[in-house]
Design goal:
The complex is a heterodimer of chains A (428) and B (183). Helix content of chain A is 66%, strand content 1%. Chain A starts with a helix and ends in an 8-residue tail after the last helix. Chain B folds into 3 domains: 89 residues, Up-down Bundle (Four Helix Bundle (Hemerythrin (Met), subunit A)), CATH 1.20.120; 28 residues; 49 residues. Chain B has 6 helices and no strands. The chains are: A mainly alpha (428), B mainly alpha (183). Chains A and B meet through helix 5, helix 6 and helix 7 of A and helix 2, helix 3, helix 5 and helix 6 of B.
Chain lengths: 428, 183
């Protein structure tokens, strides 16, 4: 079934042996150091990019005083946060209060361990895979680690001993649990197509039979929305909704500890973008050619695939910011009903459809290449057309400026009226 | 993993000690939130030990299900009911119960020592490296999924019916509450 893909994967082996222990250790350390440094620099620069893009969208200049064009602004911000006063609320749980920012940041960082970011690099000592650890359960590892991101936020909310922070933490945990399920379900079609859970195999499959955004469009859509919710970004930034909760879970944090939550948010964005790139946009694959996926590997191929990967990554990062400065925030009940009543059933139904399609196409003897991708694409156009047509009836998300029907208004009024009454008043 | 014995031994003891220490801290903490966090730490060390036993799938599922889902829900409930303050849930059980608990603990410890001395049943042990071989040939998930969906399909499906029953029950309880509120 997926034999050609496996053949592609194994084709790398004979001429370039994998590394022995010591070169492997040294190259791993180098990769760790480089990825970590670039990751931190990227997170810092993204704070600047966010402000510049928001300024561009709102037709102003943005930060432009520190360094050329405001380029040193993240450095100035960092310095400011270092010298600010560290505050501890009087009745907070000190240990958990301190650990929470670290816990918010760590999952985003360690998820990077399994993301492949370039074609293998040939060296004198053997083949260096451009991934920190291509573990056999790669994809499940990502799901497992991303499910831990909620701890930092929940503990921050609880240990602050502040009702707004607690509400922010509770909202966040409810939100992340809800959308994690949709996210996991949206990735099952990806695994079904690849026939394997390692990310290397998923990238190779996409290189061979078309990117998953073409073959699994709806899964990509669900995953993207869930990823936005998981990273607590607008329109899903309910845990820190300023209008209702001061600053949510990090209300009581100051100086570098607050800064850490800030870095964690951007780190999470980078990781989520990398995931979308790897699972749906072919990872480091250069489109329309198999040249970059087949041996012999060279430094040029590695560099070009790196550029391809970073390009796709940047696109998603820009999308994050674009959406943040375009859309308003959801109401909490909208958020929950979108997660449980729309995304989850949609993802489940899509799994069944895709499984049936894969079985059918294999039974018809459609080879796993562009013909397969085209058939899947045709199916997806139909599915996406139906789903988006159904979604866009103003039922689930009605824009803030839309006219509201009299019946809907009456319904909302009774809803608000009922929720303000205590059980005693309702005669219960 | 076993090709680097020192590496293996070091990490076995590292995660073993972390697991045992976290477990002890878990049962001795007064604050439920701290206790829950130590339990998460224990789960993590167990996951690491599973990975070292060539069972990465079980290790990852341990983190995904226990640390990532069940403990988050525990924390959620603890916070929602505001049980965070230590005084509210201080252990009220008497000395007799503590004695029983201590005896059970001693018995379990004795069992562990007996197990380390015992000869293993030959049928139970698989040759070294079998699991690693299987992962190489059919992937970490295929190794578990193969038997699960062929040999043990009926028990698997029965388990899923059990879970479905639990879900239906939870929904029913939620609906009843809602109906009572509306009245």
């Amino acid at each position: 079934m997926s034999l050609p893909v496996l053949a592609l994967l194994q084709a790398a082996d004979p001429q370039l042996p994998p590394l022995h222990f010591w070169p492997w250790l040294i190259f791993s350390l180098i990769k760790l150091l480089v990825v970590f440094t670039l990751y931190m620099v990227a997170a810092a620069l993204l704070t600047l990019a966010e402000r510049k893009i928001s300024a561009w969208i709102q037709d102003r200049h943005g930060p432009n005083r520190v360094g050329p064009g405001g380029l040193m602004q993240p450095l100035a911000d960092g310095l400011k946060n270092f010298v600010k006063e560290e505050t501890f609320p009087k009745f907070s749980n000190k240990a958990l209060f301190l650990i929470a920012p670290m816990l918010a940041f760590m999952p985003a960082l360690i998820t990077w361990a399994v993301i492949p970011f370039g074609s293998p690099l040939p060296t004198r000592w053997g083949r260096v895979d451009l991934v920190l650890a291509d573990i056999p359960v790669g994809f499940l590892y990502i799901l497992a680690i991303s499910s831990l991101g909620v701890y930092g936020i929940v503990l921050a909310g609880w240990s602050s001993n502040n009702k707004y922070a607690l509400l922010g933490g509770l909202r966040s945990s409810a939100q992340m649990i809800s959308y994690e399920i949709a996210m996991g379900m949206a990735t099952i079609p990806v695994v079904m197509l690849a026939g394997n859970v390692t990310l290397g195999a998923i990238v190779m499959t996409q290189a061979h039979q078309g990117w998953n955004i073409v073959t699994l469009t709806l899964a990509f859509f669900i995953f993207m929305v869930a990823a936005f919710a998981e990273t607590n970004r607008v329109p899903f930034d309910l845990p820190e909704a300023e209008a209702e909760l001061v600053a949510g879970y990090h209300s009581e944090y100051s100086a570098m500890k607050f800064s850490f939550f800030f870095i964690a948010e951007y780190a999470n964005m980078v990781t989520a973008s990398a995931l979308m790139t790897t699972l749906f946009l072919g990872g480091w694959d250069i489109p329309f050619t198999l040249w970059d996926n087949l041996p012999p590997f060279s430094v040029l191929k590695t560099l070009l695939t790196l550029v391809a990967f970073l390009g796709k990554l940047s696109f998603f990062l820009f999308l994050y910011m674009w959406i943040r400065w375009t859309l308003p925030r959801f109401r909490y009940d909208q958020l929950m009903s979108l997660g449980w009543k729309v995304m989850l059933p949609m993802a489940l139904a899509y799994i069944v459809i895709i499984a049936a399609a894969i079985l059918g196409l294999d039974a018809l003897g459609v080879p796993r290449d562009w013909r397969f991708a085209l058939s899947m694409f045709a199916l997806n156009i139909v599915v996406v057309f139906i789903v988006f047509g159904w979604l866009d009836r103003g039922r689930i998300v009605s824009p803030a400026s839309s006219r509201i029907s009299a019946g809907e208004l009456a319904r909302l009024r009774t809803m608000a009226h009922r929720s303000t009454l205590t059980p005693r008043e309702t005669g219960d | 993993m076993e090709s680097y014995p020192l590496f293996y031994t070091f990490h076995f003891y590292l995660f073993g000690i972390i697991a045992v220490a976290s477990a002890i801290l878990f049962v001795t903490r007064k604050s439920p939130v701290s206790a829950a966090m130590w339990l998460v730490s224990t789960m993590f060390s167990l996951a690491a030990l599973y990975v070292m036993l060539d069972a990465p799938f079980i290790g990852v599922i341990q983190v995904l299900v226990y640390a990532g889902a069940i403990m988050v829900v525990f924390l959620f409930v603890i916070m929602l009911l505001n049980l965070g303050q230590p005084s509210e849930i201080a252990d009220v059980r008497s000395g007799g119960w503590r004695l029983v608990a201590g005896l059970v603990g001693l018995a379990l410890l004795a069992e562990i020592f007996a197990l380390t001395r015992a000869h293993s049943v030959p049928g139970l042990a698989i040759p070294r490296g079998t699991a690693a071989e299987a992962i190489n040939s059919m992937g970490a998930v295929g190794m578990v999924a193969g038997p699960l969906f062929t040999t043990y399909l009926l028990p698997f499906e029965v388990t899923s019916v059990l879970l479905l029953a639990a879900v239906v029950g939870a929904v029913m309880i939620g609906k009843q509450r809602r109906a009572a509120d509306a009245r």
